[in-house]
Write the structure tokens for this entry.
Amino acid sequence: MTNYQNAREYHVDDDEENTLEAGQTIDDKQKSLLNTSKNVVDTEAWHMIRALDKNLLDDALIHSAKMLRQLRTSDLSPKNYYDLYMLVFDKMRHLEVFFQEENKRGRRMQDLYEVVQHTSEIVPRLYLLITVGSVYIKSKEAPAKDVLKDLVEMCKGVQHPTRGLFLRNYLSQLSKDKLPDVGSEYEGVGGQVQDSINFIIQNFTETVHLFSRLKNEGPVSEREKREKERNELSILVGKSLERLSNLEGVTLEMYRKMVLNKVLEVVVQSNDRMAQQYLIDCIIQVFPDEFHMATLDTLLQSCLDLDQGVNLRAIFTSLMDRFSSYTQRRVSEGDHHSNAGVNVVEIFLKYVDKVSEVYGIGTSDNLLINSSLLSLALQAYPDRTDYVNRIISGVASHLSDAPINDDQVVKLTRKILTIPLESYSSVLKILDIEKYNEILTLLPFAERRMVARQIVRTALKYNDKITTVDQVNELFELIRPMLKDEATNETLAEDDWEDFEEEQNLVARTVHLFDHAETDNLFKIYSAARKHFGQGGVKRIQFTLVPLVFKYLELATKIHHSQSEASTSVIKQDKVFQYVMEILEVLANQRPGPALQLYLQSALCADRCELDKIVYELLSQAFMLYEEEDSKVQLDYLHLIINTLQGMKHISEDNYNTLSTKTCQYSSKLLRKPDQCRAVLMCSHLFWPMVDNKELQNSSKALECLQWSLKIVKSCLSNQQILLFVEILNVYAHHFDKKNDKVTTEYLNGMIDLIFTNIPNLEETDETAAPINIFYRNTLKHLRLRKQQDGEMYEDVRFTLM
């Protein structure tokens, strides 16, 4: 082995001065220089390959040296030098293959190793030495560790930043598969993994120094451009770290004692912001997560010693995100103890506080760090709510000193608030997070609404049961933007009604989350919700109060059923219905139609609870709303009223008579005669049959309604009468079938005769003629079928005229 010290010299280039010709730009000059060098490389490489084909080694070495001499230039920018280097690297493959063939033919590599050292110029000499050295190692004529040590020391002879950086990259590339490692062919006599570590770290150290010096090259006016090019070449510096991570023999203990501290020392001492930023990121990316967990404290402590310009936020978040992904991956594999016995969240919390205090990082960076830390805490320690509280409290403290004043901060703040929602399977845990609402209130109204919607969706998704008044108040405080407009001008746009309607439907569904075994507590929960809903204004209460009414009715029914038991309930049914009527009174002012329907529904519930006075009051209110409705919809509402009255089970006879009579009067006051006829016809069902309360049946009044409807038909237009006759026949048939003793076969026969007499008067051109005929034939078909089933009852019904 020759003494490497003979090669240590600092070569002074004798290239021509890099001057610009008249009218020539710097880029033009660089392009010209690069093309000239490439032409020389191509020419000399061609001669080298011809000499190798003829087995003329001396000539091949001469031409290779001339080719490699182009890498001595100081005139090319780092980017252009890289292009030239890649061309030379490709050509040198021919020489390496030749040396390998020579070794196979029995030539000693040690001799070749000494021969190439006679090359006069240092740059070509070292490239040739590395090329021969790689084959020398492979031949195993000498221990790999000795050759590697010799090469890495000799490379110190080139101290020019650009030339030295690429030379060491060449050494790293050619030696990557020849390092002594556990299980490799070079282990043992060739060395141990520790020798490879020492070689790589030594080469890495020199590479970092050269890269750092590169920033001082070139004129000051091109500093920004040179920094950009230097950033593009940073990958050459990280190659050594990749080599270290690929060594199979590097254990956690070895990484802790031999690798990390030395690497971090080199990085910190470089005092180069770009190198430090890139290399710390390389360390994070290339080494296993288990190694980082075990040495996290050391790594983060070194980060505090980096240049002030280094983006610590990027480093911290990169580590946190890796740990989150690692934890998630291991948990999915069934390993719930994957943190190597190290509490990484505690360590991060300590250093995040230090970074905030010492470095005074900006609001955006602070939020980015805390959002990554929050994700990590929820992934690694989902049951440690104290970590979540500490992180959220820290964010709240920071935001109180640095108000939210730009879109990025708003976006990041919202992200921090949504991370727990995505991790927890219960919104109740969100209610336990201190300072959560404090942060939420700092956001603009529109952003708070977005978070509120996600909170509600989470609660509904996991069907969280709200069992206390405090939980109701806390939840509704969080979703306040969905419950109430701001006092400022930030109100909902009218053209966004569909989104608003969807949002309010979400809020309305929250009432189904309220639950408690005791009716008194459930009443308090509903009342708390009612208070919040009541602040929502006209647009909101039409969505939110309606489902609450039904929950109150459900509660009243529950209280009624519990009265027969040993109930200690303080809240009685009357109190519940009092609240219902208060709500309906508010709704009636805004949406009288839906309010009318709710009055009818509430009346049915009150009837089931045997509250006759409340039934009467509710129906009276419904009638008042009916009177104010447009005549176009009154018929539909009459149908609802009639159905409601018909379903009563416990209403008193006096109240029922009053209400049914009032309903009949309404029927006769409808604007259109056909509507009057149909309404009066429907009123017959108020008196027969009364399935749920037979004491209220009155066959005579039912018949009066039927006869009354027939009289009204005479006032209708002739083209309307036939259809009404058929409808009346159907109702007569219904009453007859339900054994109304006042409706006899004489009435059926009379109606059949009446229709039979008038139906020929239908004009064929009338588009209603065909449907009416079909309707009538189907009615007769039904009557025939009933006669077959019950011949005695239908014996006197005349079908001879049909």
